[in-house]
């Protein structure tokens, strides 16, 4: 049972007083509580993967909150009005019926008199049942019901009976007691029960009326409000979809344009539509793309000019260098017959001439890579023999440890592999110190059309490569320090080694070993193809497209011993 609030009609509700000692749940501080809730919802929204989904979710939540709030307020206001109207009408009719019939009740009324009064009170415009109880005499209590099957005194709450019998200070014998009422629920159906004394010293009367019609009306209202709320949420989702499409379509256009720009299509532009913030963003993107295109074009022009200059300079220097080299070789042969004061100068000229000749040859090799005219002439070789030959040709046998099992065959360009190994080993000897260890292993692959890979590891015992230098070890002419003293290398050796590895379809990487020292790893496929075999991919194909025909090496290509001058790597440490 639960009490209802007092309304018009003179009735007083029976209200249960709350226990002042009951446990209460604490309420967190308002601002901190709201801030915590909002931040929690914000974190959950940010976890959603799509901006469209976040927008739709926000719209749906706002619409749901607004619809639920409005529906809840409307339901409770309507419920209060409906119940109050039905309750006041029943109480007013009950009081009026009691007043009309109480005058005809004898002073010493019998049970038959009370039964007639109960039937008269119940026979009214509002359908309710009545129980009259006369407990004033010392004899047995007289209890009569208008419908014994529908309403008995046992159905009246005990607290309501006690309240009806309680005499107040303002009660008089000639006036009725106060009318008390209470809403109860029996078997899931709501009822209103009211009770009062007919007169100050008269019998007590109780009334029972059903609130089921009002409950049905309220259930129908709740269903209607729930349907309206669902329709509002669906409408908000559709509206959010439309709004998200309107907002995100330009964003998607910008995303696609940025992707095309990242792929190198620098002429990408977008049509500016409207004058809102998205239109301003589109204009900003177009301006940035235009500026980027100008800068990239300017850099490309400068790079092309630099490459032409290097190529022209290399070719122009080669002819006089050939003559100078021939003359220095003659002087080197006669150095023992020269004056001891002149011999050191002659030896210096010879060494510097060779260094300059190596630089010219390396520059010409770089121009071939840039022009994509470098060619591959592959052959089946034993990798162990190739490594041993490279080390033996440069008299490094005492300084290099080789772990290369025989029988590992690969189809490579022997000259270019020699260039790669010479630069890697020479770099390790100059900066890591001996002994340098060269390890060769095989690596299988799951692809049926691949023969696997050959992996070379060149490890030294030096201090390793600084972490800030490591990403640049294969850059051309890179200097770890601007104050680095002049060295014998050109700064192109590792770059040429990397380009030769790419021609084979391989890769070179550099790292520092945990126990100290630098480790260069060369990974080459065992089935590289020659230009003569019609390879249509990579730089080799570009060389064929440039008009280079298969056959003997070009006279411009440097000999292996010259192009593979070990020790170019000092430029990167």
From TrEMBL:
This is histidine kinase. It catalyses: ATP + protein L-histidine = ADP + protein N-phospho-L-histidine. It comes from the Bacteria. The chain crosses the membrane at residues 53-77. SUPFAM superfamilies: ATPase domain of HSP90 chaperone/DNA topoisomerase II/histidine kinase (SSF55874), HAMP domain-like (SSF158472), Homodimeric domain of signal transducing histidine kinase (SSF47384). The keyword Secreted does not apply. Keywords: Kinase, Membrane, Phosphoprotein, Transferase, Transmembrane, Transmembrane helix, Two-component regulatory system. Pfam families: HAMP, HATPase_c, HisKA. InterPro entries: HAMP_dom, HATPase_C_sf, HATPase_dom, His_kinase_dom, HisK_dim/P_dom, HisK_dim/P_sf, Sig_transdc_His_kin-like_C, TCS_sensor_his_kinase. Residues 537-547 have a biased composition (Low complexity). The keyword Membrane applies. Residues 312-528 form the Histidine kinase domain. It comes from Streptomyces hainanensis. GO terms for molecular function: phosphorelay sensor kinase activity. Its main location: membrane. It is found in: Cell membrane. Residues 1-21, 525-573 are annotated as: Disordered. One of its GO terms (cellular component) is plasma membrane. Its EC number is 2.7.13.3.
């Amino acid at each position: 049972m639960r009490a209802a609030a007092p309304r018009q009609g003179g009735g007083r509700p029976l209200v249960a007083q709350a226990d002042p000692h009951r446990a209460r749940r604490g309420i967190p501080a308002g601002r901190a509580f709201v801030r915590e809730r909002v931040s929690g919802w914000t974190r959950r929204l940010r976890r959603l993967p799509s901006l469209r989904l976040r927008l739709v979710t926000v719209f749906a939540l706002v619409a749901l909150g607004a619809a639920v709030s409005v529906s809840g307020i409307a339901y409770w206001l309507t419920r209060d009005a409906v119940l109050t109207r039905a309750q006041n009408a029943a109480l007013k009719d009950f009081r009026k019926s009691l007043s009309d019939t109480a005058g005809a009740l004898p002073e010493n009324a019998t049970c038959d008199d009370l039964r007639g009064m109960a039937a008269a009170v119940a026979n009214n415009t509002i359908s309710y049942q009545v129980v009259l109880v006369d407990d004033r005499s010392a004899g047995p209590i007289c209890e009569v019901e208008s419908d014994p099957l529908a309403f008995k005194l046992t159905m009246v709450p005990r607290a309501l009976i006690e309240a009806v019998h309680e005499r107040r200070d303002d009660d008089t014998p000639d006036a009725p007691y106060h009318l008390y009422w209470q809403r109860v629920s029996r078997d899931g159906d709501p009822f209103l029960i009211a009770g009062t004394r007919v007169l100050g010293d008269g019998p007590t009367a109780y009334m029972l009326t059903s609130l089921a019609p009002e409950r049905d009306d309220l259930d129908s209202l709740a269903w209607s409000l729930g349907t309206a709320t669902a329709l509002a949420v669906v409408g908000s989702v559709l509206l959010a979809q439309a709004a998200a499409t309107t907002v995100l379509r330009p964003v998607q256009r910008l995303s696609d344009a940025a992707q095309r720009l990242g792929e190198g299509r620098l002429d990408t532009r977008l049509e500016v539509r409207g004058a809102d913030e998205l239109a301003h963003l589109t204009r900003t993107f177009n301006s940035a793309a235009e500026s980027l295109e100008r800068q990239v074009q300017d850099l490309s022009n400068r790079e092309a000019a630099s490459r032409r200059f290097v190529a022209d300079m290399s070719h122009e220097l080669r002819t006089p260098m050939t003559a100078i080299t021939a003359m220095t070789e003659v002087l080197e042969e006669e150095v023992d017959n020269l004056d001891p004061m002149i011999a050191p100068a002659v030896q210096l000229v010879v060494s510097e001439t060779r260094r300059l000749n190596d630089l010219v040859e390396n520059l010409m090799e770089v121009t071939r890579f840039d022009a994509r005219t470098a060619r591959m002439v592959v052959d089946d070789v034993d990798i162990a023999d190739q490594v041993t030959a490279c080390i033996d040709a440069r008299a490094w046998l005492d300084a290099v440890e080789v772990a290369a099992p025989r029988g590992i065959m690969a189809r490579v360009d022997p000259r270019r592999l020699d260039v790669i190994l010479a630069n890697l080993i020479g770099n390790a000897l100059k900066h890591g110190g001996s002994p340098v260890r060269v390890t060769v292993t095989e690596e299988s692959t799951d692809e049926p059309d691949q023969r696997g890979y050959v992996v070379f590891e060149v490890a030294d015992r030096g201090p390793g490569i600084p972490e800030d230098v490591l990403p640049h070890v294969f850059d051309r002419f890179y200097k770890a320090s601007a104050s680095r003293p002049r060295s014998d290398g050109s700064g192109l050796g590792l770059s040429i080694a990397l380009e030769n590895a790419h021609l084979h379809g391989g890769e070179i990487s550099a790292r520092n070993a945990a126990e100290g020292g630098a480790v260069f790893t060369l990974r080459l496929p065992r089935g590289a193809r020659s230009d003569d075999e019609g390879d249509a991919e990579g730089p080799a194909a570009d060389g064929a497209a440039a008009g280079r025909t298969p056959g003997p090496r070009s006279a411009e290509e440097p000999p292996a011993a010259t192009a593979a001058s070990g020790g170019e790597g000092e430029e990167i440490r």
